[in-house]
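User: For a reading group we're discussing how well predicted structures match intuition. Take RNA polymerase sigma factor FliA. Before you show the prediction, I'll give you the sequence so everyone sees exactly what went in.
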Amino acid sequence: MKLRRAYLPADASTTVDVATHAPLVRKLASMMVSRLPASVELDDLIQVGMIGLLEAAQQFDTSQGVLFETFASQRIRGAMLDELRRIDWLPRQARRNAKQIEQALTALEQEFGRAPHESEVAERLEMSIDEYQSMLYDCKGHQLVYYEDFRHESDEGSSTQFIEHVAGPEAETPFAMLGDQRFREHLVAAIKELPERDQLVMNLYYEEELNLKEIGAVLGVTESRVCQLHSQAVSRLRGKLRSWI
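Assistant: Thanks. Here is the predicted 3D structure of RNA polymerase sigma factor FliA, as structure tokens, for the group to look at:
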């Protein structure tokens, strides 16, 4: 994943000394990149953030009674988030479909007290089994957290921007979360609750590091079918781990 390269105009003039506030961009980019996939590069986030800083300097109005650093932080983070959304490989419609699947799986499991069958999920979504499986294939299921998840609900019920959740100083890194004994126990329990075939797919993909074609050979199904099963398994886990992600 590569972010678009961006450069500041050489003759830009503002009422704010941009160079003085450049460290703010690095600080925000460093906090954000530690909670994103390794394919997102710090330098690229900084370049995008510098564009946000320049725009903030050009648009800052001292009469509003807001500190420039506060105003600039919002613009810098916004610029970074816009770029992350732009490069996100999964189309917005596919993300919406993935969330629909996740919600249907979670609701049906609560109703039945077991993992629902594909036909039951398709019926809940008011579509044919072929349409449901096609939706699973299109979603791919590779992302546990989506950049479109803008809002995060706190324990007190208030909501904050998703960017604040992933980049804020109080947020845990994925590695720290994985090191949390409670999370590991929750994850293990969630995987054990998956249907047997879903467990096998996850084990072969993540533990044995087989590709989809190789997993298909083990299961005796096509590569596209493995992709569907993987998407469904990830959607089930997202629902079970909702309090953690």
